[in-house]
Write a structure and sequence with these properties.
Chain lengths: 525, 562
């Protein structure tokens, strides 16, 4: 696709909008941002967007905390409110702070890597999880059903004709990757899903060849064609994903241990694949569990502990490690991330140590390319909740999509994807050409044979030398066997994985070489 | 289609005597195209052609897949109406409850001896994980071993409808009680089912009913009761937010004994004020008071006054048993009449499901092969198609095998007992993909790995009990395993929803013949094996060719369809 056209687009900022950068009110006039931005990260064809879905409806009030609303909040949130002294303070604002379990994210904010958009939602909130997340994924109005996703429609425009002729030399990689085994509606195009789902980037499977005859024009034929398409795409894209996974090595030592933080596990793969050279522009990761009707704080009544604190800790640690990884890899100029959730939660708390479905909530965009600071005002908590227990919307979520499509992906007419015009928000800044610091990447090859195995499997590990550990984990991430540990010289080393009394099933052989981790799924049968 | 079926039947009745090499092979007529995509008829009882194809179609949709014997069983009933009667004839007795099959180094149940049931034991949080796993494996065993009737498929339908997860109640007993409620009313009174589920411990945990009290009402159950369980949101005219609030007030005050899951009312926590509903419910007021049970009944009665309930549940049944697309014609010819049947029968499910399954619409050729197998259809279907026996000699074997199958289902995104959320699995609700939600690069690969494991490897327990496809026993049940052409037709009838073309069958045959041109290579190999069943080389010769054939077939996109 000819993509020069966007060079001519002018980046009109929303006139008169104001926001603060470390406390300094600025006029939002990043007129140069878009053209300047073209000079970093190569061009917009190389840029990556990582969407992080906080599934269940995140409680924005306890995430990005409006400190100037405490007198009213304390009336309605009872035990749920974070004590003021525990709120993590942010540079340049007295009016906002972060949940106490988000210290790494606090550091990122203070380092100028976070843009917070306040009070994001949509008109006429629908309080159903399912409908509301469909609205976010499809970017529809609340009263309109659109059966495909905003990112899917964008990719359809960017890669015309898909899936016919894909992958190709020009576009060898998946158009989008969903981490996990469930594909989001956001990635569904008007005809086909535009992305692929992966749980293990190194897994590869040779599908059997089929005699392909024209599918009949019937529901059977339609479904058959769909499965054929997934087979064919998977077969080809598995190769490029596996290749990238083998080339790209995580650099950060800040990731939590595997299987302890579901989001970190996903972001780690994303960083690895980008570094490994995958040209995929959109990734979606998901952190589940935000539907905190009960147990948002634990039942002992300590507001600093409970499900929400755990989730925000995971979110914060994962994003921080990911950003560190990107920086160490020298690719932090071409990646931005965005969190989103189907809705916020009620102002008041309920009787179950939780909150119910609400409306607007803050949203984070992070990365080196963002204009740091806060866009929008703090929500106003009323003195009386009898009329509404919700925070009203200030920014339509589609204004953020519009900004990303235009300022990050260089799409001239975001309305062609979103169906309507929305204001551009000052989320992105101009960045000069980055210094490149591509370090030597730790490389190793891991191979377990036979696999599946019955009594034992031989692990062959080729390394450049260093501190090595080889462990076997079960499906819950528990270490069930320590196979080897110690310093090993450069070369190929052999280890034996003994079945012993392990029950049959799937396991993960995890190798750590100087902090770089590789995993191979193994099956005991 | 009809011609094809009859010619295939003639085929299967060919005499088994005679020179095999010279058996004339006549290619069955393959229709070049399906009938045009227009659905004929609605709920008119189907009186057309009754062949094994139709019997297999009914079994694929109403059970978790079928063996050749089950196809024959229904086929031999002679017509669709008798076959549907047979499918709807479900066991009336309760199954023996799940037992302690889990004692291990980590946990020995102090209250329940090995081999005895734990369903009446008090809660033991250290052991609940094992009890839940025991319950799940017991449930999956029912799916694998159930006869040719609809009961387990319908229980799964209701599980998806009233979707709950195991991690909230975290009680094997609550899981078991929940399953037994679904089982009891599976073909019975939907309204009573809603009532029982409303006060079911597992659901009270799952949607916070336990925490819903007068001073801090929790709207979770009140919302889903209307949005997901009864009224739905298909019609833009539906209940309002005020109705959610009012229903939550009706439902306040229920508590349970944590140790025993015994549900009771705490009157002090019940909102005793009058509850005002919106114009959608004709501005109905439910009188408050101390009798919370009466209020729950009145609430459910009020909801069931709305015709939306019958339409909503009819669409869900349709999407679970027929196809996901409901166009205007289907709405008019199938959904509306089905909803009418439900209302006329005071929401008894049996007459409605019966009308749907025995309809011209259900047996219409256009509705065949268009349903993407759920992970359970796939995982359990392989076992049922190939008569794979899963019950090892000990309870430990049983536990291990079924737990492993559960892991496989989990990888494929359908762990029974744990749908992703209260809306159930997206495949039954999320437009436009619906069933296609099951299939992506990750899950399709894992589906293939599972069938590969069953074909070439095996599930094996610690004691050495093995679960795998016996390729030779599978084909030996057919009339002519020695004739590669007839054998392939027989196999396809069990495994595939649609006939294969000549060209595709040639590929299958070339697998059996290892690429050789003469049919008698297979025939000789088979005869050699049957003459010397103890000869390992003779056995391996046929075993490996059949394994390759079965792998190939289960790797075809068609095998994902029913």
């Amino acid at each position: 696709m000819e993509r020069r056209s966007f060079l001519y687009h002018s980046c009109a900022a929303a006139a008169g909008a104001s926001f603060t950068l470390k406390g300094m009110p600025l006029n939002t006039a990043p007129q140069k941002s878009f053209l300047d931005a073209l000079s970093f990260g190569g061009n917009s064809d190389n840029r990556v967007l990582v969407l992080i879905e906080l599934n269940g409806g995140n409680d924005g009030i306890n995430t990005f905390i409006p400190l100037d609303q405490y007198s009213n909040l304390s009336k309605f949130r009872r035990n749920l409110l974070i004590p003021e002294r525990n709120v993590l303070r942010l540079q340049g604002t007295q009016a906002n702070g972060l949940h106490p379990s988000m210290a790494p994210f606090q550091k990122m904010y203070n380092d100028g890597l976070v843009s917070v958009v306040q009070n994001v939602g949509y008109p006429e909130q629908d309080y159903s999880h399912f409908r509301s997340s469909d609205i976010w994924m499809s970017a529809s109005d609340a009263d309109v059903n659109i059966e495909n996703g905003w990112a899917g429609r964008y990719l359809e425009q960017r890669y015309p004709g898909f899936p016919t002729g894909y992958p190709s030399d020009a576009n060898p990689d998946p158009l989008a990757i969903q981490l996990g085994a469930v594909m989001s509606l956001a990635l569904v195009g008007s005809q086909w899903p535009m992305g692929m789902a992966i749980t293990d980037p190194k897994a590869y499977y040779e599908f059997v060849n089929s005699v392909v005859e024209p599918a009949p024009d019937s529901p059977f034929g339609d479904e058959l064609e769909y499965i054929r398409l997934v087979t064919q795409q998977a077969q080809q894209y598995f190769k490029s994903v596996k290749g990238a996974a083998e080339k790209g090595r995580n650099q950060s030592t800040l990731y939590p241990p595997d299987d302890k933080n579901y989001l970190a596990d996903q972001l780690k793969i994303v960083a690895q694949l980008i570094k490994g050279g995958l040209k995929t522009p959109i990734y979606i990761c998901t952190l589940h569990g935000f539907d905190t009707h009960s147990g948002q704080i634990n039942s002992s009544g300590n507001p600093l502990e409970g499900d929400h604190a755990d989730l925000l800790r995971m979110l914060s640690e994962a994003i921080y490690a990911f950003q560190d990884d990107l920086k160490l890899m020298g690719i932090d100029d071409k990646v931005v991330g965005m969190t989103f959730s189907e809705f916020g939660r009620t102002i008041g708390s309920n009787g179950s140590f939780g909150t119910d479905h609400g409306a607007a909530a803050p949203l984070f965009v992070f990365g080196k390319a963002v204009n740091p600071g806060i866009i929008g005002k703090n929500p106003q908590v009323p003195t009386d909740l009898s009329e509404s227990d919700d925070l009203p919307m200030e920014h339509d979520f589609r204004a953020i999509y519009t900004t990303i499509l235009k300022d990050w992906f260089g799409l001239e007419q975001p309305a062609s994807i979103l169906g309507q015009k929305f204001p551009i928000l000052p989320i992105f800044k101009s960045i000069s050409t980055p210094t490149r610091d591509i370090r030597t990447v730790e490389q190793f090859e891991l191979n377990a044979r036979p696999n599946p195995f019955r009594e034992s499997s031989n692990i062959s590990l080729r390394i450049n030398g260093g501190q090595v550990s080889v462990r076997l984990l079960d499906g819950f991430g528990r270490v069930v066997q320590n196979v080897a540990e110690g310093y090993y010289a450069a070369g190929t080393h052999q280890f034996v994985l003994q079945r012993q009394d392990l029950p049959m099933g799937q396991y993960y052989c995890q190798v750590n070489v100087n902090g770089t981790i590789g995993v191979q799924k193994v099956v005991a049968m | 289609m009809a011609e094809f079926s009859s010619s295939r039947r003639t085929f299967l009745q060919l005499p088994t005597e005679g020179s095999l090499v010279e058996t004339p092979y006549i290619e069955p007529e393959i229709p070049t195209a399906l009938p045009p995509f227009t659905l004929q008829g609605g709920l008119t009882p189907y009186a057309g052609m009754w062949g094994r194809e139709q019997a297999a179609h009914l079994l694929r949709r109403a059970t978790f897949g079928s063996s050749q014997a089950q196809i024959d069983q229904l086929y031999n009933l002679g017509n669709a109406q008798k076959a549907v009667d047979s499918i709807l004839n479900v066991p009336k007795t309760e199954p023996a409850p799940p037992v302690n099959n889990y004692n291990n180094d980590e946990f020995t149940d102090p209250d329940v001896p090995f081999g005895k049931t734990w369903v009446n034991a008090k809660r033991n949080n250290e052991g609940e994980f094992f009890r839940i796993t025991s319950w799940r494996s017991w449930w999956m065993e029912r799916m694998v071993t159930s006869e040719a009737n609809i009961l387990e498929k319908l229980i799964l339908f209701w599980h998806n409808h009233f979707a709950t997860r195991t991690d909230i109640s975290f009680s094997g007993q609550a899981c078991y009680k929940h399953y037994m409620i679904l089982r009891k009313h599976a073909l019975g009174d939907f309204k009573q089912l809603v009532y029982d589920v409303t006060l079911d411990p597992h659901m009270l945990f799952f949607l916070n009913g336990l925490y819903n009290e007068v001073n801090a009402p929790d709207e979770n159950y009140a919302r889903e009761l209307q949005e997901l369980f009864t009224i739905g949101k298909d019609n833009p005219e539906h209940y309002t937010e005020a109705d959610v609030v009012a229903a939550a007030k009706v439902l306040t005050g229920w508590r349970l004994e944590y140790q025993t899951n015994k549900v009771f009312l705490n009157p002090r926590l019940h909102d005793q004020t009058d509850k005002q509903f919106s114009a959608f419910y004709n501005n109905r007021v439910i009188k408050g008071g101390a009798d919370a049970e009466r209020e729950v009944r009145e609430l459910i009665d009020m909801i069931f006054q709305k015709d939306e309930v019958s339409l909503y549940i009819s669409r869900k049944l349709y999407r679970f048993f027929v196809y996901y697309q409901i166009d205007e014609q289907v709405e008019k010819n199938v959904i509306q009449p089905l909803a009418e049947i439900l209302r006329q029968n005071k929401y008894q499910i049996l007459p409605a499901i019966s009308a749907l399954l025995r309809s011209e619409h259900f047996f219409d050729a256009v509705n065949k092969g268009c349903f993407i197998k759920t992970p359970l259809d796939l995982v359990i279907g392989v076992l049922r198609n190939f008569n794979v026996h899963i019950n090892g000699p000990t309870l430990y074997d049983q536990y291990q095998i079924l737990t492993s199958l559960g892991w496989t289902c989990n990888d494929l995104q359908m762990l029974p007992g744990d749908p992703p959320n209260v809306a159930g699995w997206p495949a039954f609700r999320q437009a436009p993909k619906y069933y296609r939600n099951w299939i992506n690069s990750d899950t399709l690969r894992n589906r293939n790995i599972y069938s590969d494991v069953m074909t070439y490897w095996r599930y094996e327990t610690e004691s050495g009990y093995r679960v795998f496809i016996d390729h030779i026993a599978f084909v030996a049940q057919f009339p002519r395993p020695d004739d590669p052409n007839l054998l392939i037709d027989s196999i396809l009838q069990v495994l595939m929803p649609m006939p294969f073309s000549t060209a595709k069958k040639q590929v299958l045959k070339s697998i059996l013949l290892s690429g050789q041109a003469q049919d008698y290579y297979w025939t000789v190999a088979w005869k050699n094996y049957t003459a010397n069943p103890g000869d390992k080389a003779a056995r391996d010769t046929v075993w490996y060719r059949l394994a390759a054939l079965h792998k190939y077939l289960m790797g075809q996109p068609e095998y994902q369809l029913i």
